[in-house]
Fold this sequence. Notes:
Two copies of one chain form a homodimer. Chain A is α/β, with parallel strands linked by helices. The first copy, chain A, has a domain at 2-174 and 217-244: NAD(P)-binding Rossmann-like Domain (Rossmann fold, 3-Layer(aba) Sandwich), CATH 3.40.50. The first copy, chain A, is built from eleven helices and 14 strands. In chain A, the strands form four sheets. In chain A, strands 5-4-1-6-7-8-12 form a seven-stranded parallel beta sheet, with helices on both faces. A three-stranded mixed beta sheet of chain A has the order 9-11-13.
Amino acid sequence: MNILIIGGGGVVGQKLARRLAERGELRGQTISSMVLADIADPPQPEAPFPVASASCDISDAAAVAGLIDESTDVIYLLAAVVSAHAESDFDIGMRVNLHGVLNVLERCRALQSAPVLVFTSSLAVFGGDVPDPIEDWTIPNPQTSYGAQKAIGELLVNDYSRRGFIDGRAFRLPTISVRPGKPNLAASSFMSSIIREPLNGQEAVCPVDLDFPHYYLSPRRCVENLILGAEIDGDAMGSSRSMMMPGRTWTIGQMIDAMTAVAGPDPAKLIRFEEQPEINAIVKGWKYDLNPAKALSLGLKADDSFEDNVRYYIKDDLPGA
Amino acid sequence: MNILIIGGGGVVGQKLARRLAERGELRGQTISSMVLADIADPPQPEAPFPVASASCDISDAAAVAGLIDESTDVIYLLAAVVSAHAESDFDIGMRVNLHGVLNVLERCRALQSAPVLVFTSSLAVFGGDVPDPIEDWTIPNPQTSYGAQKAIGELLVNDYSRRGFIDGRAFRLPTISVRPGKPNLAASSFMSSIIREPLNGQEAVCPVDLDFPHYYLSPRRCVENLILGAEIDGDAMGSSRSMMMPGRTWTIGQMIDAMTAVAGPDPAKLIRFEEQPEINAIVKGWKYDLNPAKALSLGLKADDSFEDNVRYYIKDDLPGA
């Protein structure tokens, strides 16, 4: 079992690599090697099998060809130019999120093997005037270039799977919280930082009201779902290889209450509420009423409580913990 | 008003060109020129304005750049590698239906102007396990490469429109019947030939039962819808520029009865029923229960009766009529 993680340097890619190293097996087979590829050489976890890292820009077809060969059994395609970046720089979004994905798929098509390919799409494929709740048969109607590029990736993964070039599966990830690391330029950045920074003893700004609802998944649960996502039987997915990854809808108030239940009353005092109209304008268009029936029926899971998300952050990621 | 019809040599492209020549105006403006582009130089209709033809393979970006400039006001993008061809030859489908569409869109993006672009998608974007009826918010879940490529085209037209690179609109065409010309390799070929050949005094084979239902539109009504499709206000389309073009569901029995009502009892005697399992396997997966509410609300129309479709064929296309 040879595994390739494209986007292996990111938050999810690194956690996935560490978890696979712990498990030592995937799809019932002992892992013999793992390659982590990213724009810059990713750090390599300790593992009972050889781990290599590679720097690769997936918009370069020749570089992609060097990553994937007949011995590659499972590919995680996590690499993407994120939402705000693909919106501010249309070219780079198209280059990586569309042509880069095509390069990976075309490389797989050129092989005799049909590797398992796990593609991370996003709930950003949904938007605009569609009825609630979002069901498995709701149209992806993206309102960002990132969402459009991810929806195109899903269609490609489906068609390349139907034709037997890959054994693909695409999961639309909820917003990951509590995401470790630093705040970034994503409009969703505050959805982790209002928990993460206070737990780290730092101030955080919340630009929306306490009753703002959104759909979340912990990084730990996301990784478990990505592992199961590689293991489920392709035929069990029916006429589409794309599905929502289950999450849970929480309000800001519920998230803060969960942090207080786990870590006491002090962290919440570090949150300052300061409305930011430009952030509100973006995040209030996001869908939060979703019914991921298909993924649940295949065994993928949401978090049990947001308290768990807080506990996972403290255990897995709190600096110095 | 300068118009470009890419795919101007096809059945719909030729009828559209002739109708625009008759009208002499589009979007309230006098037409000053029209270019018909296709793989081979298309025939040019008589018109009160200059008409040029051009041979162009849209998978060649330089050739596309030669077709479109700042003076191009309206582009009809009808060219495509059809369903059976895109299924038997994956490369040519991707090259024309995906990269060719991208070439047209990228050329528009490079301009200062944002031309109106009317893209013909197909009801073949729908398929698989989705509930009936198909609504405007039903997921395109294509089960052919052609359908996948058309669904990708829709997403691109939407995003390029949202960003102001074009003023796009995408219409998912029903099966066109009665289509003039010769039978072809499409699985839907019999849906026109069982009417066309008997009206021409020739035998036709019907591979499905009398009660087989499908969703149809006459070429004449399709052209009227494509003209209105260029004229409707982009903002009126809301959060998606893609919609079903209205059609009507008829059974084979209803279609034959309509032919008999219009042309007497003799043509129907020329139809031979001969089950073809491989055709059945394809067409029985096609959706026929559709609710094109959005297009209807914008003024697009279906045919009033299949008798009209038969009359249009006799008037517009019957050889020697």
